[in-house]
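FORM 7B: Structural annotation worksheet

SECTION A. Query
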Amino acid sequence: MSEVSAPLRIGIVGIAGRLGRVAAEAVRDAEGLELIGGLVSERTELDVAGYVRSLEGLLARGEIDVLLDVATHPGSERWTRDAVGRGIPIVSGSSGWSESTLEDIGAQAEKLRVPAFFVPNFAIGAVVMMRVAAEIARTFPRAEIVEMHHDAKRDTPSGTAQVTAKKMEAAGAAHVVIHSVRLPGLVAHQEVVFGGRGEMLTLRHDALSRESFSDGIVAALRGVRRLPPGLHVGLDLVL
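SECTION B. Predicted structure
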């Protein structure tokens, strides 16, 4: 008989938020994953068993194999650095990170031999959109991005738009301008509009609900420990 491997023990930073609640449900439903508990900010009421305010409190509930960070920035930076410092692989879906901060955390992760995985967008369709946008940019080098999110999103432009633009520019596009929209009723939407002589081509992805991120979250949690030590960006690395 083959041995049954132990489930991956997951802790979630920002578990009380919109994405955190979706992530918790995804972990509970996924085979081979076990939710140890969640970490919340000082502003969150502690009315659910398993919610704590520090990484120490979370670790007191049990050993953690992977920490998922879906908290808002800059608060998530403290917990991410703490996890990396303790040698815990991290998956972060938090946006708003500066390039210098990412490089600094990546250097710390490489030194301590731990993978730090930053995922701008957990939606599978968004990953496909970014890859296709980079390919199209080889033929249509003039393009702009319109990213639209709910009005509670704090960072502008979105991490997804920034990564999309970088991939396109690396493929040969001219400087890609990003336009941001923040309105109630939106979830997460992005259009990449390409222009050529006498024609236009539009590529669009819509996340109609946060449940669209569930499969990507599970894939990232399962795949992060297979990545080498250091900084890694983009869900496509584990798909």
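SECTION C. Observations
The chain has seven helices and eleven strands. The radius of gyration is 18 Å.

SECTION D. Sign-off
Analyst initials: ____
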